Amino acid sequence: MIRENFLKEGYTEAGNSDEADVCVVNTCTVTSTSDSKSLKSIRSGLRKKDKCVVATGCMINDRDLDLAKLKGVDFIIKNKDKYKIPKIIQQSLEPSALSPQPSGSITWFEGHSRAFVKVQDGCNNRCSYCKVSIVRGRSRSRASEEVFRECETLIKNGYKEIVLTGICLGAYGRDISNSVDLSRLIKELCRIKGDWRIRLSSIEPKDVVDGLISQMRSEDKLCKHLHIPFQSGDDDILKRMNRPYAAGDYIGIVNKLRKAIPDIAISTDIMVGFPGEEEANFQNTMTFIKEIRPMRLHTFGFSKRIGTPAHSYKDNVASAIKKKREHALMDAVKGFTKEFEGMFIGKIARVLVEDKRDKDDFLQGYTDRYIKVLIDGPDSAKSCLLTCQLTLTNQKAYGILLSYSD
Question: Would 80 be classed as within a structural domain?
């Protein structure tokens, strides 16, 4: 959205930050590593003299931010004003200039074969380790009519997959009306004609309700893949995290999903090294992972964030132990990934092809269940939905082109 509004104002995009006259750094503060990377990008932008450097994003919304770290930055802009950045810069150069209200929507998505449509922001949850609710505020939803128009435009512009995103996607609509929710939004969007599909980015366990499960089973346009973060498989750690469920609740959700859709893809997040996580707690998480058998896992170590309750928690876990636990989890899930992908070998699948080839010059893409596929095909297949038969060669999944037309 920031990029598109700049282009509408007559700017052109530079090849790299050294060539740019204006450098916008959209910061993240979810972990201490994110802070470090954001500040490094800002310093990189400041290397060239006479460059306009703009810092925005979640780190800027952090009330604990030391502004001295942003010395030399021309504009410090909070999240709520991101879409105004080109206008703010222009008015600083020409105070009397009038420019049209910038758009809060997108019509294309640079460098991606799929488009990401943000339908919700903010979070009402209060996980003890998380700063998102502090820097993003309470849950806020976009009007369904606005989301519909944006998706319709993106599909007309050739996008074959729309990914619905949000800080807490399952909370969509609750701040608008009792008659508005995520399932109703999906139902409306699936009315848009064309050969395209819709994917959900991430959804909290408590938001995987019966209506959504039924919808995933029956709606052809909806990808049969859910990313459901649970963070830990130990009930004591979940309580300390202030997560609103127990491990058994999550297992119940997974079992219900697989009963409705036996070959559904389920991926998840796990945090290791939360304060007080002893080896026994971690082994409960390992047992839990082996029971739910996710096809993919994102794991990361606990990071202290100033302003959150967990910042003052004792019994910190050493970095070396965190890394060891991350590796143990990833090693376990590798087997589940192969097991899941093996269910589809020899079957027909629809694959959305990415814009870039891999190092071996194969096209690459993903099925609706987020299985990565390599294809020996022409450049004209990029950004297309292809019908493929999945085979296994040299321990890699390849798609054999069955039908395709420009």
Answer: yes
Q: What are phi and psi of 34, to 5 degrees?
A: -60, -45
Mean pLDDT of all residues belonging to the chain: 92
**Scanning the structure block, which residue is given the tokens 């629809």?**
350
Instruction: Assess whether 134 and 246 both reside in one domain.
Output: yes
Residue 394 burial (10 A CB sphere; 0-12, 13-18, 19+): exposed
Residue 301: name the closest of 281, 321, 280, 285 by CA: 321
Q: Are residues 16 and 124 in the same domain?
A: no
Q: What is the pLDDT of residues 31-45, one digit of tens each?
A: 989 999 999 999 998
Query: What is the DSSP code string of 175-227?
Result: TT-TT--HHHHHHHHTTS-SS-EEEE----GGG--HHHHHHHHH-TTB-SEEE
Residue 104 included in any domain: no
Count CB atoms within 10 A of the CB of residue 326: 18
Same domain, 353 and 338: no
User: Is 87 in the same domain as 201?
Assistant: no
Beta-strand ranges (E) seen in 273-395 are 296-301, 348-357, 363-367, 372-375, 385-393
Domain for residue 110, yes or no? no
Neighbours of 58 (CB within 10 A): 22
Question: How is 6-53 classified by DSSP, letter by letter?
Answer: HHHTT----SSTTT-SEEEEEE--SSHHHHHHHHHHHHHHTTSTT-EE
Q: Number of folded domains in the chain?
A: 3
Q: Which has the closest alpha carbon to 173: 154, 147, 204?
A: 147
In this prediction, residues 272-300 reach a mean pLDDT of 97
Question: What is the residue range of 357's domain?
Answer: 348-403
Separation CA 341–CA 369 (nearest Å):
9
Question: Domain check: are 164 and 244 in the same one?
Answer: yes
Quick: pLDDT tens for 138-153: 999 999 999 999 999 9
